[in-house]
Write the structure tokens for this entry.
Amino acid sequence: MQMITIQVDAEVAQAYQESDPIKQKKIQMLVNTWLKQTMQQRSLDEIIAEMQTQASQKGLTQDSLDNILQDE
């Protein structure tokens, strides 16, 4: 993998930086998947549906996603 830099809100950056490495890895995987899908120029609905399918196949439920994205 290669590293890129993107701008985010200050609160997003702080929450990410303060999260544990496992949570950071999960977020990286979500962002990576989202960016791949977006670059394929498909509709947002198609991208979301595919990401939901992939996430559930990997055991990521809506509850666990909410916990990842929730401020601690």
In short: Helices lie at 10-18, 21-39, 44-57, 62-69. The CA atoms of residues 25 and 63 lie 17 Å apart.
